[in-house]
Amino acid sequence: MQGRLEDGVVHLPGDARQRFHDSRGYGRPTGGDDLEVAPVEAAHLLSRDDIDGVDGMGLRELLARTGTTLDFVVYKDLRDRGFYLSPAREGWPGATDAAGADFLVYPRGKGPWDGEVEHRVRVVGERESIPVSSLGEVVLAIVDEDGDLTYFDTEGYAPEGTAAEDLPADLDAELLSDRALVWDGVDRLYQRGFFGQRLYGRNADSGPLQLSLLEAAYLARADALAIDEADVVSRGRDVEGDRFDRRLAVYAALRGAKTVPKSGFKFGSDFRVYTEFESVSDLSHSEFLVRVVAPDHTFVPRDLSLDVRLAGGVRKRMVFALTDDNGEIDWLSVSRLTP
């Protein structure tokens, strides 16, 4: 069987609908027995010797002419894993769910005729830029320079915890260049709220408490410290510019969601976050990492992979807080996926 390429679509004649769509989920029926398939689908049929060619072209020529090599790598991998999938093209099955995707992948054992989509997949090369605003409810299929595939699931996230907040009032605090010191009321802040770190060391049970500027600003806003929030914020902007405001918005939102955010420096992130907390004495492991980014942030796939790999290596979820200048936050979770 020879296909015909016209206007970006490969037309297959004869009994193609019965052979390829009705039994195996390829293409879109056009009425009768003929079938239209996307170039990547035709390439897959060529690779299987299910069709003889397209306008006399073999697989090599078709991939070069249509520029579908990366799509083919992903399409073949998912087919080999036992999935039926459709190109996310206008007029193709499931196209109403296709925004931001290249393929619609159906649950195993189901096809385009069932109307149920398992994954919306977007194909990305290793060196492409990925606007963070384009992510969420889509699976990234990243093809590296060796042709290997890594899948990342991206979805919205809602931080939620169980920490109860019990703050003191008007504690005396000393504002320093990049932190604040509290000398009295330390146990209540540290043990029951996990604010700060003891100046004498993690295992010390006495002495002053050192607070980050984020913690100091949050506590000053809540009147827990007898210092002016504006002074702390001004100091924070001196240290890290306008980014301090975005990080403070995220810190406050995490506390408002009854979670406990702490520095994520050791993990290369802005925060490590505890969702279940009663006291420092009963501290469990943090559950997720947060990196604060602007809504117009653009990822490089390699950097995204590093963040997710590091979080997975320490058994934590990687969450990005898309925070604008007004403090509005959208939460995005990214994790490795094995389809």
From TrEMBL:
The keyword Phosphoprotein does not apply. It catalyses: pretRNA = a 3'-half-tRNA molecule with a 5'-OH end + a 5'-half-tRNA molecule with a 2',3'-cyclic phosphate end + an intron with a 2',3'-cyclic phosphate and a 5'-hydroxyl terminus. Pfam families: tRNA_int_endo, tRNA_int_endo_N. Residues 244-331 form the tRNA intron endonuclease catalytic domain. One of its GO terms (molecular function) is nucleic acid binding. It comes from the Archaea. The active site is at residues 274, 285, 316. Residues 1-62, 172-228 form the tRNA intron endonuclease N-terminal domain. Its EC number is 4.6.1.16. One of its GO terms (biological process) is tRNA splicing, via endonucleolytic cleavage and ligation. Keywords: Endonuclease, Hydrolase, Lyase, Nuclease, tRNA processing. It is an enzyme of class 4 (lyase). GO terms for cellular component: cytoplasm. Homodimer. Belongs to the tRNA-intron endonuclease family. Archaeal long subfamily. Endonuclease that removes tRNA introns. Cleaves pre-tRNA at the 5' and 3' splice sites to release the intron. The products are an intron and two tRNA half-molecules bearing 2',3' cyclic phosphate and 5'-OH termini. Recognizes a pseudosymmetric substrate in which 2 bulged loops of 3 bases are separated by a stem of 4 bp. Endonuclease that removes tRNA introns. Cleaves pre-tRNA at the 5'- and 3'-splice sites to release the intron. The products are an intron and two tRNA half-molecules bearing 2',3' cyclic phosphate and 5'-OH termini. Recognizes a pseudosymmetric substrate in which 2 bulged loops of 3 bases are separated by a stem of 4 bp. This is tRNA-splicing endonuclease. It comes from Haloferax massiliensis.
